[in-house]
Amino acid sequence: MKVFLAGATGALGRRLIPVLLERGHTVIGTTRSPKKASALSQAGAEPVVLDALDHDAVMRAVVQAEPDAIIHQLTALSGLTSLRNPDKGFAMTNRLRTEGTDHLLEAARAAGARRFVAQSYAGWPYARDGARVKTEADALDPHPVAAMRRTLDAIRHVEEAVTTAEGIEGLALRYGGFYGPGTSLDTRGDHLALVRKRRFPVIGDGQGVWSFVHIDDAAAATANAVERGAPGVYNVVDDEPAPVATWLPELAKAAGAKPPRHLPAWFGRLVAGEPTVAMMTEIRGASNGKAKQELGWQPRHATWREGFAELQAA
User: Fold this and answer.
1) Predicted TM-score (pTM) above 0.85
2) Residue 112 Rama label (left phi>0; alpha psi -120 to 50; beta)
3) Can you list the residues of the chain whose pLDDT is less than 50?
């Protein structure tokens, strides 16, 4: 199968290319930077330098490639460490999830691509009430924190546009929080550096439930989604959603750091903002049952505990 991978030099794109090649697929990978094109060639992909917000350029590139499937992994999150105002930090990513998605879908139809797999997110968008662990059938947050509304709107857009696209088998993968090589929770990652400096505290009761997925397990699930599974939304997360108060001390231990500090919620709002407090105290985790059953996916790192232990060993 010929696969057009938009966002091939991102954290997931880099890990996905060898998986697709190993399965016998041909990969055309995009990058915004001409300097990164050679790295794509060395990885075995055919490079395309492309601005995904340029409608005409996207149309030309996709139609010329004539792919069987398109994978949409476009983000602009490099260096993002503060969640005080997600809508500001995710502004370009939100455009890629709205305008970029629309451009790629139009190009997919023009090129005759039959399969479209897009990146979504399971980290915080679910409603912050009811069950502590959500399935794809559960509602997204109807009343998100003000500074997260535009970002949630963009997530809703990419999911609805992709899964309802006429003539295309569209799948939206709600990934958990990435960790592992090339992510912010790598041995040299920005967020792990904050943990080591004790600048990543537990805020409030720390009962916000997070779902993680190792970057290589996310790549495997994505490759599976290219090959199988009905159109729809899938949570791509590990087997153990866990409260911040449980996983963050374990991450600090794996990083060789002192235990994280604890801050009251009122002080957390002052120093980190309402979105961070919501993530620390209110958000829900996600279940991976549907992805296991319908995509035939099984995470090699069953839980974040195994993955964090690898960080410690490194």
Assistant:
1) yes
2) left
3) none
